[in-house]
Specification:
Layout (H helix, E strand, L loop, with lengths): L1 E3 L5 H14 L6 E5 H6 L12 E5 L23 E3 L20 E3 L20 E3 L20 E3 L20 E3 L20 E3 L20 E3 L20 E3 L20 E3 L20 E3 L20 E3 L20 E3 L20 E3 L20 E3 L20 E3 L8 H10 L7
Parallel strand pairs: 1-2, 2-3, 3-4, 4-5, 5-6, 6-7, 7-8, 8-9, 9-10, 10-11, 11-12, 12-13, 13-14, 14-15, 15-16, 16-17, 17-18
């Protein structure tokens, strides 16, 4: 039996809903109501002895000043899931710790500034979501949640996390996105079951070497911090598939990255890199490599060893040439080389028959060969802001082209531009 309650006139409607529920209280397993009604009928909660799921919805149309749960919430002994999202809560009563059967606790989008230490009694809790609140810290008792698999604390004001987090031996996902963390405890290396670690948009200047002990880690997101380097211990993350470290202050990539042979996606864009280590060529399963917006002046020839690569972004760097080994990237579909210092392209680039997107704008290219007509799968071609005065007639062979950016920015005469437009569908030539 499921009870749905809304609170535009919460006293009458809440009374009606709970009265109906209490006619057969032992058959009520899920209940959706509002915070006002929960308080109004708090003394009756103990009669809902089989209730396993409770969802509290916002009191639409009500001007309630209630900002916490009634202490009688503890009477719901069999409650397994409680969703308190988006209710303007500022605190949780200590009685929350008496819900020992609880497995899922959702507290998103409230105004909670701290969690009671009694939360540590919820030893069956598997999911704890506290996103979009006003937490500045987590209680050390959180380390007692031995069944916890998912801990999400996005969009809060955390400056640190307690070392006791390392006691969460079954934790698989730790999401600390958009906080004010300046340091991670070394005990984070004790999270032996962790698969996903998201620390994007914090203020970290270093990552503890103990992160290398996260043997089951598959996704590591370090975007938008203040990292200058990565610990060499990352070489031990043998199951890592995704590594994103964009918008930091990285000066180099450790050569040990070559040992992460399960990596599929790597993002180092928006840093201060001047080179890519040749060991990158050892990543035989890599499909996406993004290193745009750096200061890289050379691509190692070992790039040709990345046989599974489908997306490659070197835009906004200082490249003056592309190694011929790029020809070996037979599966490449996206190639971003705009905003560099290229004057010529190697003939091998025209052998990349699976290319769909090719961006070459803002370079110094003055000539394109007829072989460019071989890119029969090309859908987007950007040639703006180069030194091109003409294009080979073979460009008309690009039958799948949907977007072609050529002018402005090239010193092409009006007469030549007219020829180009006559050769190609007018809607393509920009």
């Amino acid at each position: 039996m499921s009870i749905q309650g809304y609170s535009q006139s919460q006293a009458k409607r809440g009374y009606f809903m709970f009265t109906n529920a209490l006619k057969k209280p032992t058959k009520v397993y899920t209940l959706t109501t509002c915070l006002d009604s929960l308080h109004l009928f708090a003394s009756k909660l103990k009669e809902l002895e089989n209730l396993t799921s409770l969802k509290i919805q916002q009191s639409f149309g009500a001007s309630s000043n209630i900002t916490t749960l009634p202490k009688e919430i503890a009477d719901l002994k069999n409650l397994k899931t409680i969703d308190l999202s988006n209710n303007g809560l500022t605190t949780l009563p200590k009685q929350i710790g008496q819900l020992i059967a609880l497995e899922n606790l959702y507290l998103k989008q409230n105004k909670i500034t701290s969690l009671p230490k009694e939360i540590g009694r919820l030893t069956n809790l598997k999911v704890l979501n506290i996103d979009n609140n006003e937490l500045t810290s987590l209680p050390k008792q959180i380390g007692r949640l031995q069944s916890l698999k998912i801990l999400s604390v996005k969009y809060n004001q955390l400056t640190s996390i307690p070392k006791q987090v390392g006691q969460l031996k079954h934790l698989k996902t730790l999401n600390l996105y958009s906080n004010k963390l300046t340091i991670l405890p070394k005990q984070i290396g004790q999270l032996i079951a962790l698969k996903t670690l998201n620390i994007e948009r914090n203020q970290l200047k270093a990552i503890p070497k103990q992160v290398g002990k996260l043997q089951k880690l598959e996704t590591l997101n370090l975007n938008s911090n203040q990292l200058v380097t990565l610990p060499t211990a990352i070489e031990h993350l043998k199951h890592l598939k995704t590594l994103t470290v964009q918008k930091n202050l990285l000066l180099s990539i450790p050569t040990q990255i070559g040992k992460l042979n399960k990596l599929v996606r790597v993002v180092f864009s928006g840093n201060q890199l001047t080179k890519i280590p040749k060991e990158i060529g050892q990543l035989g399963k890599l499909k996406h490599l993004y290193v745009h917006q750096n200061k890289i002046n050379i691509i190692p020839s070992e790039i040709g060893q990345l046989k599974e690569l489908t997306r490659l972004a070197f835009a906004s760097n200082k490249l003056s040439f592309i190694p011929k080994e790029i020809e070996q990237l037979k599966k490449l579909q996206w190639l971003f080389l705009d905003n560099n210092q290229l004057t010529v392209l190697p003939k091998e680039i025209w052998a990349l028959r699976n290319i769909r997107i090719l961006t070459l704008s803002a370079n110094q290219i003055s000539y394109l060969p007829k072989e460019m007509g071989q890119l029969r799968n090309l859908k987007l071609l950007d040639l703006r802001s180069n030194k091109l005065t003409t294009l080979p007639k073979e460009i008309t062979q690009l039958k799948k082209l949907k977007q072609f950016d050529f002018s402005p920015g090239n010193p092409v005469s009006q007469q030549e531009l007219k020829k180009i437009r006559n050769r190609m569908p007018k809607y393509l030539v920009r």
